[in-house]
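Trying the structure run again after the queue cleared.
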Amino acid sequence: MAAINNELNYINQMAREDPQDMIGRSEARYRNIVGAIADRALRAQGHKLILLAGPSASGKTTSAKKIAGALKTAGVNTFYVSMDDFYLPAERIPLLPNGKRDIESVHALDLPLLRRTLRELMETGQGTLPRFDFATGTSREGITLKLGPEDMIVLEGLHALHPLLAEQLSGMHPAQLTKVYVSVSSRIYNEKEIVLNKRGIRLARRMLRDCQFRGTLPELTLGMWSAVTQGEEQYLAPCKPFADVFINSIHIYECCVYRARLLPLLNAIPEDSPVYGKGQKLARALERFEPLDGDLVPKDSLLREFLGTSGRS
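Done. Tokens:
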């Protein structure tokens, strides 16, 4: 795989002098990783299932769909399944000590239904997938999935590598299963100084996605971020060692694109807000990046998961 130059001066120089080359290299690096995972599954005799986990705003959905797409291109019928469709109704999700629902917990999922569905798919080749309606917070009848002898499933979700799920798959031969962990695994440096850490990049992504698709302003995203990362430490980090393959989803040019979109939103946070300081810290980091037009982001880029599809590209 191509090495990542995650030094701020290099990023800014490329953004000024040859942004298309930097973008092309970033996209190709990620595309090659996806292709290698698909190739791994294709080479394994009797391969059936790819489990893909990762923290918030890591690019799980896009990565899972791209792996499924690569397998389909190779002639293997592949189904994408999201664990989000197995969420419990809000009133059944466990409570945190502060009285809020612990939506980051593996127990926020309908585990018996998930286990039963996986068991039916693996043993009989057929199972019914629910569809969770986030607008109403309820599950509705989904589709019946029928697997052919050579078909595969890509199952994506925060808890896809959790031991409670692994127990249900314990009878599968290792060659039938690939476990993938995706996250931002590189910081942005200026010499020895960390300009923006891994969580900071994911926070920028999460803010943009929340604003673009959920109508949530950065002040609210910042307010819930500590709970999100605490949930990741508690429920996700212990599962990371179980992965067979890792995807570093950073695109080194992404913060150059985020700058213009996020700075006005971050600077609009009132000074009396409890998250004002956190917002300003992220804003000051983004100000150090050379700005790039979001229209330069390819329409099939992972970054479109956070930016949306608008633009000329």
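Strands lie at 49-53, 78-82, 126-133, 138-146, 152-156, 177-183, 188-190, 193-196, 245-248. Worth checking whether this holds up in the mutant runs.
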